[in-house]
Amino acid sequence: MPSSLDIPHASPPQSTQQQVQSPSAKKNSQSSSLLHIIAVAICFVLAFHWYLVIHHVSYHAPHGFPGFQKGKNDFRLKKGKYRGRYILSPVCGGCYRTYDEHMTPCFDLIQQYMKKNANTTLREASQKIGTEVKECGICNPDTCFQHTLKDKYKPPSAGGMDQKHGEQKYQYQTKYWRFDQTAPQIENPASIVLPAIPEELRIPTSRFDDIEAFIRTKYANPDPDNTTSIFLIEYNPGIARIPQHMRPHLPPNAVYAMTLRVTPHNFCVPVSVTESLPEEIKQTMHSLNYMGFMLLDGEYKPIEGHNAVIDIAGELDARRNHWLGEPPFVDYRLFNLNNELYLHINSDTVIITKIRLRSKTNTDEAQRKVDWEEDRKIREKKEKKIQLNNLYGGDSLEVTLLHQFNTIWGETRESMFGKNYALFSLPNATHPAEPDAIYAEMSVHPDHMVMQILPNEHVQLPRDRKIKWRLRRNFKIDHIIQRKMLSVGNATVSKTFDSPTASNPSFFNADEHWFPGGINPFKEFAHGGACCVLMTVEAMRGEGVVLP
Q1: I want to staple 358 with a disulfide (CB 3.0 to 4.6 A). Which of 307, 398, 407, 451 is the partner?
Q2: Which among 417, 422, 485 is positioned nearest to 455, based on CA atoms?
Q3: Beta strands of 347-501 (E only): which ranges?
Q4: What is the pTM of this model?
Q5: Interatomic CA distance for residues 197 and 199, integer angstroms
């Protein structure tokens, strides 16, 4: 988005006396008027979208639900009006997302009870369901704070009892926070474009207003094997620090490595446009997925010559010919583990490998010795490195897979189809001098599943029925899926609620309050994504953005 918008100024008021204009002057006047109308229209559209953002983040609560409460350091929207930070509700945090034994949302049971008992309050209905339905115990406002506060909770003394009614005076209310209030504070933000994408493969700005016609023309003859008459968009970035031992072999200002998904398949255009496209066009666009790779400096600026688009499916011969549908690889992410750099990809399930980054311009003898030694260890393990060729760009960038991908398998058929695992490491508790233990967080809610993994070790599975269990089986990557990554023991599984081992959420978001029970529009399994970023006029002007 441009930082400023030049708006043509209206001409000064004219005299009431009639004036005579030449044809050229009339033409200039008409052009000026047209520019003025366009500028006003642009301002109107920007203002309308600005209103939608503010309205969605702050005032989207359904009818009958309380609005946001005024909080400390809230800023004024208008004279006398403030933007609140959270919603207070007697419904306990976690209740909206909890289910009974029949997988009926507990809040649905609360609403049903209120309909049958017209004079019942929300608090009373929550107490009733929380008491009578075992799985919905978290909904009882008289006791739920014992779960959410845990060690901070202290039972009230005798003086805290209402002696007349024998009830506690203390009544807990949950705060449901606005999205932007719970998000991490953003520091040094940057908007990044992948320079390696050829200009002729980007959507021309002149076609934004007729994007559907542009797509239909570009894919007039849908063919998944055609990689020239296409357009590309980059998104879903993954970023990690470049390991210290790699930096001498790269430009001195290289600090971060970033991966991106590069594909025609996107939701940047209106959903109505995407849905109106013929199925063969949608599937053709979906079937092509490249990996973008780039090096960034400390200010997140791309380093010249060190950004590329890589056809990793083509490099590994993993793409099925004439295939319309799910690509073999999507969503590329980077992780720092034990001072090494790992590439995580969503395939039929999650696959991982260790990678090496080199600059083609840095070929001194010291680098060769380091690489030779590493290559020797790879050969001793009877593995094979895979140096990836760059499809576009990357004149100076070299990315190498240090072994074929290994696959994280779950322990049951249902847990085989994972994606977007969070990888992390912890110091070895029994042998501090040893490398950190590496873990994969495979599921977050309602079952929290964590497994200790050995990402560079695998066992070769037979090509039996387990290999064919996969929902989206691509037989060309069977040899990758058969490389089952070794794990240490069994996965640790716990419930996110009412479990002595699980950590309770430290806060709850307004979406849980607005979209309770069965109308939850958000995906509860690991799916990636983001939400709302608060953009205030004050904050934007403070950053020097000139607003219309």
Answers
A1: 398
A2: 485
A3: 350-359, 386-388, 392-393, 397-401, 406-407, 422-426, 437-443, 447-460, 483-487, 492-495
A4: 0.72
A5: 6
